[in-house]
Design brief:
The complex is a heterodimer of chains A (229) and B (231). Chain A is built from nine helices and no strands. The longest helix of chain A has 35 residues, at 8-42. The mean pLDDT of chain A is 92. With 229 residues, chain A is mainly alpha-helical. Chain B has one domain (3-222): MetI-like fold. Chain B has 13 helices and no strands. Chain B has helices at residues 3-8, 10-44, 49-62, 65-75, 80-83, 88-91, 94-119, 123-131, 136-151, 153-166, 169-172, 178-189, 194-221. In chain B, 39% of the residues are buried. Classes of the chains: A mainly alpha (229), B mainly alpha (231). Chains A and B meet through helix 4, helix 7, helix 8 and helix 9 of A and helix 3, helix 4, helix 10, helix 11 and helix 12 of B.
Chain lengths: 229, 231
Amino acid sequence: MESLIRYAPLLAGGAVVTLSLALLSLALATLLGGLGAAGKLGGGPILRALALAYTTLVRGAPDLVWLFLVYFGGQRLVNDITGALGLGQVAVTPFVAGVFTIGIIYGAYLTETFRGAYLTIPRGQTEAAMALGLRGLPLQRKVVIPQLIRFALPGYGNVWQVLVKATAIVSVIGLQDLVGLASDAGKSTREPFVFFSAVLLAYLLVTWVSQVLLGLLERRASAGFADAR
Amino acid sequence: MRADLVVLNWQLFAAGVWMTLQLTFLALAIGFSIALPAGLSRARRVPVVSPLINGYVYLFRGTPLLVQTFLIYFGLAQFEWIRDSWAWTFLRDPWWCALIAFSLNSGAYGTEIIRGAIVTTGKGELEAAWALGLSRRQVDWLVLMPSALRRSLPQYGNEAVFMLQGSVVASVITLQDILGAGRTLNARYYLAYEGFLAAAILYMAITFLLVLAFRGLESRYLRHLRPRGVR
């Protein structure tokens, strides 16, 4: 217990790494999910096939396999590119590999979330807006997007909760995140149980806080609807 | 690209596939035997038991499988009384630790699936059974469970895929599963990605087969729920 207090500042730093990894990955995943959904919904045959290949392949193999491919294979790829261009060495850090891997994987899940949410918007909504003379970007911004957010939020929240837990795997390639640091601290103090238990509690805390925040967001996005509770 | 090395070392990957399948299916089976009674008591809100199950489910669903496995494999060794007990024969072995962690994890997710399927059972289905004079136990085992378990099939299929993909954690604690085989290959020949690519393809193939198998089960056991006129 004392050792836990002694290591608390270090672990707090690790928690910051974990959270920034999660948030940056979520940003990338949101971008890719939006692009993927747009491709699946409105793209031509080639874009649709690309989006389908993306979501199918990415979800077919485990996250850790992709992480290794991005980290080790990606470094080789970067070396080849910088070598061909005559540039110096650029290192793929565990953090960067983690953001890319987790962002790409959960972008595939968000593609389905966004696509489903878009399809849930009743057709009459866009038809009514068009009848009022709205079209193009204003139509999307004023009518489609607000409803898309409302319908996508529950699924988005679920993806976030799974994504946060998935960040733990990046410690395997040496990232000094919450799990990596707790693992080291557990070894040097010979109290691994204490430190891993603390990590479990930290993840539960993040899950719980996210749940509360997402509940508030969902209520806000559904303002004006009878069963908004 | 040295695909030839992957083919040459096929035995490595065959052993990896066997290890992955073993852990996945055993964990799913043990998880299911936890989930069945736990899901039922959670649906029934059994006093004392249900809150305990809630805690178990919340803990295992809210935290990463990797850390759960670490806690069991590295964490439990901290205590001398565990190292001195009979359980140490199992707990010092990464295979058993992985199996325990995966089973408890799958059991927690399964509990929620079973609970959900039970509470969404049509009231009329049970009322019809009571009207026929079936006893409580008969209703449970002849009507409620067969109906709920069938309806839980799609979600259980998802859980099976998650467990398969989650089982990569085994390679982190030194086990030679599919990913472990890929890592060994890369280390042996100083490769950057060939072993991982082979692992990815193998996982995809097994995922695909698993999805197909569950589709087959669904078309057999959920036939009665299909909309009329649709084949």
